[in-house]
Amino acid sequence: MLSSLANESASVLGSPSSHVLAANGSFLIKPSVGLMVWTLLVFGATMVLLGRLAFPRISEALERRQRMIEESIETAERTRAEAEQLLAEYRERLKEARVQAEEIIQRARQTAEAREHEAKERGHELVAEASKRAERDIEAATKRALEDLRKEVVELTILATEKVTRKALDESDQKRLVEEALAELDFSGLSSGASQN
C-alpha cells in the first residue's frame, strides 16, 4: 500500500509539470486523485481505530466523572437536607421548651394567686411563705428544663456534626462544639422570666 503510494507520488513528481506544481505549492490546492484516495483511506482507518480504541475509553472516563459529580451533588443535597431538618427539630424543641416554661410560669402564677387569696384570709405571714415556695419551685423547674434542653442540644449537636463530617468526634471536639452550640442558644430569657415571678 505504501509502495504504491510512493510509486504514484514518484510518477507525479517525476513529470515536468509536477516539478512546477511542487515548486509553486499548488499541488496542495489541486491534489491528484490518488492523493485524495489515500488521504481518505488513511483518515477512515484513523477514525475506525480511534472509534474502537480511544473514543470508548474517553467516553467511559467522562461518564465515570459525571457519575462521581452527580453522586457528590446528591450527597451534599442529602447532607444539607438533614442539617436543615435537624435545625428545624432544634428550633421546634426550643419552642416547646419555651412553651413549657410559660406554662410552668402561668401555673405558678395561678398557684401564687390562689395561695395569696388564702394567705390574705389567714395572714400576711403565710402569704410570704407561699410566694417564696412558689418561686423556688419555678426556679427549680426552670433549671431542670434548661438542663434537659442543654443535654438534648449537646446530643443533637454531636449527632449532627458526626453526620455532616462523617467521622466520630474525639472528646475535645465534642466539648468545643457543645460549648459553641450552647453559646448560640439564648437561655437567658427563660431563666430571667422565672426569676421575675
How are the SSEs placed, and which strands pair?
Layout: H1 2-14, H2 16-24, H3 33-122, H4 124-165, H5 171-184, H6 188-196
Question: How is this structure best described in words?
Answer:
Helix 4 (124-165) packs across helix 5 and helix 4 runs antiparallel to helix 6 (188-196). The chain has 197 residues and is mostly helical. The longest helix has 90 residues, at 33-122. Residues 12-23 have low confidence and may be disordered. The chain is rod-shaped. It starts with a helix and ends with a helix. Helix content is 90%, strand content 0%. The protein has two domains: 2-63, no CATH class; 64-196, no CATH class.
The main β sheet shows up as:
none
Number of domains: 2
Query: What is the arithmetic mean of pLDDT?
Result: 78
Q: What is the radius of gyration computed over CA atoms, rounded to a whole number of angstroms?
A: 43 Å
* SS field, number of helical segments: 6
Q: How would you name the oligomeric state of the polypeptide chains in this document?
A: single chain
Low-confidence region ranges: 12-23
How helix-rich are the residues, as a percent range?
Answer: over 70%
Which structural class is indicated by helix and strand composition?
Answer: mainly alpha
Quick one: how many beta strands? 0
Give the overall form: rod-shaped
**Distance separating the two termini:** 105 Å
In percent terms, what proportion of residues is strand? under 5%
**Element order: H for helix, E for strand:** HHHHHH
